[in-house]
Amino acid sequence: DIDIDRVKGALNNFENVEVMDNLEEGIYPMPIVATDTDITYVGRIRKDLYENNILHFFNVADQLRVGAATNAVRIALKWIELESE
Fold it and tell me: pLDDT value at position 68?
């Protein structure tokens, strides 16, 4: 069974990821908030209505800044970090 609070906590612990998920206050990710940033915004995190082990969410990022090149660099840096342990 998925615990939404644990999911939000885990996502917030990732580098360059920010959870924006408070529909009551109108806080959720939209493409305009990701423009000119290196952050990936995640929100609208919900359990599936029919299956307890399925998670749905919406995420946005600036495709020019956090596109393939930035992700490739981040993956390479993480790999180097793990290899040096």
Answer: 66
Q: Assign residue 38 a region: left if phi > 0, alpha if psi is -120 to 50, beta otherwise?
A: alpha
Q: Which of 75, 58, 57 is nearest to 66 (CA)?
A: 75
Nearest to 2 by CA among 56, 47, 57: 47
pLDDT digits (tens, 9 = 90+) for 15-67: 889 999 999 999 999 999 999 998 999 999 999 999 989 999 999 999 888 77
**Segment holding 73, helix H or strand E:** helix 68-83
Which of helix, strand or coil describes residue 42? strand
CA dist., res. 69 & res. 38, Å (int): 12
| Stated pTM of the model | 0.79
Tokens matching residue 67: 């596109």
